[in-house]
Amino acid sequence: ALDFDDMIAAVNGAYASKQAASYGLFDNDGDMALNFGFSGFRRGSYDFYKTDWKYLNDATTRGLDNEIDGVMIPAGTTTVYDQMLGSNIRRPFLHVRYRASETEDRKMKSWITGSVGGAYTSDLDVMRVNFLSERCLVTQAANNFVLFKGA
After folding, report:
1. How open is the CA angle 121-123-125, to the nearest 5 degrees?
2. Residue 85 burial (CB count, 10 A)
3. Cβ–Cβ contacts within 10 Å for residue 23, how many?
C-alpha cells in the first residue's frame, strides 16, 4: 500500500526535493509535515480510490502468496441481460449474489433445534440456533478489472 502512495506522491514534479516541493495553495512551508498517504486521485475524468484488501493481507488466504499485489476494480454499473426477467438490467461490476428460490431465501436462513423454545427436535434440554447463508461474489465485465502481479 505504501508503494502506491510513493508512486502518487512522485507525480509531484519536485517530490524528492524538500525546497522545491509544491505545498498547496495554503500558507504551508518546507518545515511542515506533509501527508503523502493518499486515499484517492483523479486522472482526466476518472476517479481512483485505494484501500487495503484484507484478503491479500491475510496470510491464511492469499496474503502469504506474493503473486498478487493488488486489484483495480471499476466503480459504477454495467448493463447485462437477465434471463429471468428477459430484459437488460444494470448491475455493479462487483456485487454479492445470494441463493434464493420461490420457497426459500438463503441470504440469512435461521432455524432452531433442540427441545426448548417450541422446537422439539431432540430430547436434549438445549436450544441451538443455526444460521446459513449461501452467497457468491459476482464479477461482471471482467475485462475492465486490472490485476497487479508480483515479481
Report:
1. 100
2. 8
3. 12
Distance CA 17, CA 23 (A): 12
Give the bridge partners for 100, in sequence order.
105
Question: What residue type is 102 in one-letter code?
Answer: E
| pTM exceeds cut of 0.70 | no
Mean pLDDT of 74-78: 86
Contacts of 94 (CB under 8 A, 6+ apart): 73, 137, 138, 139, 140
At 22-41, the pLDDT tens digits run: 545 555 566 666 666 778 77
Burial grade of 45 (CB within 10 A; 0-12, 13-18, 19 or more): exposed
Look-up: residue for cell 440456533? Answer: 129
8 Å CB contact between 133 and 98: yes
